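Q&A FORM
Asked by: J.P.
Topic: structure of nitrile hydratase

PROVIDED:
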Amino acid sequence: MSSHTRTPAEIAARVKALESMLIEKGIMTSQAVDRMVEIYENEVGPQLGAAVVAKAWVDPEFKTRLLADASEACAELGIGGLQGEDMVVVEDTDTVHNVIVCTLCSCYPWPVLGLPPNWYKDPQYRAAIVREPRKVLRESFGYSISDDVEIRVWDSSSEMRYWVLPPRPAGTEDLSEEELAQLVTRDSMIGVGPLAGASR
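REPLIED BY: S.T.
REPLY: Here is the structure written out as tokens.
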């Protein structure tokens, strides 16, 4: 979204330099860095959100609980913690498509989606998605939503963090819960992209 995009190599070099400086000054240890990486690779992140979505697709009672109280339903699966205390799940339907934003900063449901992507924190995205969501989805993400589908934009805050329950795709009746979870993308739970393998 911003005019200057850093390459992965540039970002990696900056991160490594910052990490080295913090360790050298005794502010943190290499073990602490490794633990943080482990947490965000294995203990929080979009793979957990995908598992929640897949469970909601196969278990109607769980889906009802998820839509009524997302934080409590996620806690049933051992998912929760910092930035996940007050989560709300909004459901996409044939007539409504939901998109998530935080217009003030970058409030985001970390336990189920991991760290927010850089574009989510970009002031340009935060302002534009509220004003012209259909245009932003099409031009910035290559994701076209039919004109007969209403787009609802949900503004997260420190008190309430939204995320999207996308619809289960047709033809997946024979897939296991684990296989269904593989179809769920981070972007589909933010509302800016389709499920894996779905057309944009």
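FOLLOW-UP: The radius of gyration is 18 Å.
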